[in-house]
Amino acid sequence: MADEKNQKASETNSKIKPFQTPKGVHDILPNDHEYYTFIKKVVRHRLRQAGFKRISTPIFEYTDVFARSIGDATDIVDKEMYTFKDKKGRSLTLKPEGTAGVVRAYIEHGMKQLPQPVELYYIEPHFRYDRPQKGRYRQFRQFGFEIIGELDAALDAQVIYIANKINEDLGIERLFDIQLNTIGSLEDRQKYMQALKDYYYGKERSLCEHCKDRLQKNPLRLLDCKNEDCMILVELAPRMTDYLSKDSLEYYQDVKEYLDELEIPYTENAKLVRGLDYYSNTVFEFWDAKNGAQNAIGGGGRYDGLVEKMGGQPTPAVGYAAGMERIIAHMKREKIRVPNKDTIHVFVAQLGKEAKKKCLKLIDEMREAGIRTVGALGKGSMKTQLGLADKFNAPYTLILGITEVREGTIIIRNMEKGSQEVVKFDQVIDEVINKIGEKNLDRYTPGELLY
Ligand code: HAM
């Protein structure tokens, strides 16, 4: 009867189609978490060293926070935002990037009263309804940092320097070219955009559909279109440099001098405009040295008008953000291994109820001593348990059977050599520490834990 029931249940189950993640999003499995953890550690370390403090803004904000900052005419606001209404009909959006929320928080919490500049960093998930492909996801993780409250070319250089330093720590800096440009002040840009509109007047028919639209909404974006016909027209289009004020040119010159001083190589790229509207003066991106703009790992720039545009007092700012999935893809391609603490030191195998009781206590004491320990507390045979120890890659297995319990001993098995020794149960923790080495212990001292 019971068998019949089980069979029916399993027939029904087999008809249920298992769930999968929605398109464009993915699980982070333990092997990948090693990379995320490592990147987070590097980012925290470098930014803490430079005096930055961590901030987290909500996963969703009022839609206007992004529409007003990133700009209505950008791809992000136009078609990539996850926007929904809450039960009171308010329009909310999952954050597609980090800067807008940080600026909203800077204003909301009166950070203008703090000593300036305020230096903040974040490591957060972001959401864009992008067309999923390699390096382009609908949920992705960014780390980013912002310096708000001071205008100086040395800070722009500093941001690029720290971004490059993080890449160095991750072992990937040589894979990227830093593309650098200035898009001038707001006034420079308005003059330039008018010049672009004048230039394209009468040439609209040769433009791709996107660029026809961009010409009306945001002519700057015509410069980085990848359509062949559009690229030909760009070649003869007016150059931004001809519309830059003396101040903007001097500012750009200063940024370059500071970068030279810091020995950071860069490539000047007059067509680099970035996909968000809030920038002014310096813009930069870290391009894949082999594949160019496709799959840039990070980008940023100065955004001196944004705080005011979001309702705060005029406040200059500069920042950067990088995509963690893309960084990890490069690290894997380069076969860069990351150090991790997920390996275990000891596996504990036992046989019989008395042995299990003693093991429960022993496992706890070993962990307290800093020995990463996994215990087979199920009902498996000794053979199954040793097989598990192998799967866990444990260098040592402790074996406690009925005989050992009776004699007050325990077996330490060296899994690599296959050799075994019997030691006194009371001394096993010291014996294990001797073998794995004091310096390799994983001690948990909450007071000393630095986040
Ligand atoms: P962004 O260039 O839009 O800049 O994004 C920065 C990085 O996020 C990109 O270079 C890329 O690595 C990653 N990223 C963007 N979209 C995706 C996606 N769909 N899938 C995977 N990775 C992606 C910003 O977000 C600005 N907030 C940067 C900034 C900070 N500017 C000033 N401060």
Structure description:
- This protein has helices spanning 2-15, 30-49, 63-70, 75-79, 99-108, 153-170, 186-200, 209-217, 228-236, 246-261, 306-309, 324-333, 353-368, 382-391, 402-407, 428-436, and strands spanning 53-54, 60-62, 83-85, 91-94, 118-127, 139-148, 176-182, 267-268, 282-288, 298-302, 317-323, 346-350, 373-375, 396-400, 409-414, 419-424.
- With 451 residues, the protein is an alpha+beta fold.
- It is 40% helix and 19% strand.
- An eight-stranded mixed sheet has the order 1-5-6-11-10-9-7-8, sandwiched between helices. A five-stranded mixed sheet has the order 13-12-14-15-16, with helices on both faces. It has a three-stranded antiparallel sheet with strand order 2-4-3.
- Helix 2 runs antiparallel to helix 6 and helix 6 (153-170) packs parallel to helix 10 (246-261).
- Strand 12, helix 13 and strand 13 (373-375) form a beta-alpha-beta unit.
- The model has no long low-confidence stretch (mean pLDDT 92).
- It binds histidyl-adenosine monophosphate.
- Histidyl-adenosine monophosphate binds at residues 97-99, 128, 130, 135-137, 140, 142, 144, 146, 275-276, 296-301, 319-323, 325-326.
Bound molecules: histidyl-adenosine monophosphate
User: What is the straight-line distance between the termini?
Assistant: 56 Å
Unreliable sequence segments:
none
Structural class: alpha+beta
Rg of Cα set: 29 Å
Q: Mean pLDDT, nearest integer?
A: 92
Sheet-strand content, in percent, reads: 15-25%
